[in-house]
């Protein structure tokens, strides 16, 4: 083999670009190059849709049911029905894992209100669009988790229904790009002087052994990882206080971390250029990452 091909191949795997990935579009599996939706799709024109991202570890879905509960709620809030039965949706997830031989990474799925002539009102008798694909990522032995990551704060520019897992992600895109420009992993969004959450994660600080995080409301997405963390923390005697905190409190915290399905528990060692807890992942964060990972690998 031409060595350049080999380098590209390894690079593609490392980048999580599974070659000739099989994707799902409206009932059919196909090579990703053939996966297409209409330019009139309301997801494309109006961001009129919702999504879920479920982690995969050892070829198995992690916390699948809580993701589907949240999906049900998102669909209900935007007055949409399920596009297929729950069994069919689960079969899609499993089949995508099987066809792509996915060991670690995630399954992404998105449902939109289908394609119709451009009109803000809901179209009549239009079938929803359902798509799914996999992405490869080393979730367990994650290099970032060993060192901890940096975050910056940005204004929260989002709408008022952040509890719905909507595909309308422009504000998070801008926030994440600002973070990337600043050499940071994530941006924590701030509203009325308090941190709401990360662009694609929930936000936590640790002070005097106690974990502090914002309560769920319309201001944040109720993370599935957050929910699992609460249960496991309780079992391990780690106290969690649900309240909003300011960036200044975060700068002075002993530890900080974020949670999401694609990062589990990710230690944070710097916020807005200020070192947290001596610049090392803290003991509470490390313990929580371990117990959340152990549960995911069960
Ligand atoms: N908040 C936001 C805004 C997110 O996009 C995500 C990622 N889906 C999360 C929190 C974390 O949620 P989960 O643990 O369910 O991935």
Question: How would you describe what is shown here?
Answer:
This protein folds into two domains: 116 residues, 2-Layer Sandwich (D-amino Acid Aminotransferase, Chain A, domain 1); 154 residues, D-amino Acid Aminotransferase, subunit A, domain 2 (D-amino Acid Aminotransferase, Chain A, domain 2, Alpha-Beta Barrel). The chain is of the alpha+beta class. The N terminus is likely disordered. The protein has nine helices and 15 strands. Bound molecules: 4'-deoxy-4'-aminopyridoxal-5'-phosphate. 4'-deoxy-4'-aminopyridoxal-5'-phosphate binds next to helix 7 and strand 13. 4'-deoxy-4'-aminopyridoxal-5'-phosphate (PMP) binds next to helix 7 and strand 13.
Q: What is the fold's blueprint, element by element?
A:
Elements: H1 3-14, E1 22-25, E2 28-31, H2 42-46, E3 49-57, E4 60-61, H3 64-77, H4 86-99, E5 105-112, E6 129-136, H5 143-147, E7 149-155, H6 170-181, E8 186-191, E9 194-198, E10 202-207, E11 210-213, H7 224-235, E12 240-242, H8 247-251, E13 255-260, E14 264-271, E15 274-275, H9 283-296
Parallel strand pairs: 7-8, 7-14, 11-12
Antiparallel strand pairs: 1-2, 1-6, 3-4, 3-5, 5-6, 8-9, 10-11, 10-13, 13-14, 14-15
The N- to C-terminal Cα distance equals: 39 Å
Strand content: 25-35%
The overall pLDDT average reads: 94
Count of structural domains: 2
> Which CATH C-level class of the largest domain is it?
Alpha Beta
Net shape: globular
At the fourth level of CATH, the homologous superfamily of the largest domain is: D-amino Acid Aminotransferase, subunit A, domain 2
CATH topology of the largest domain: D-amino Acid Aminotransferase, Chain A, domain 2
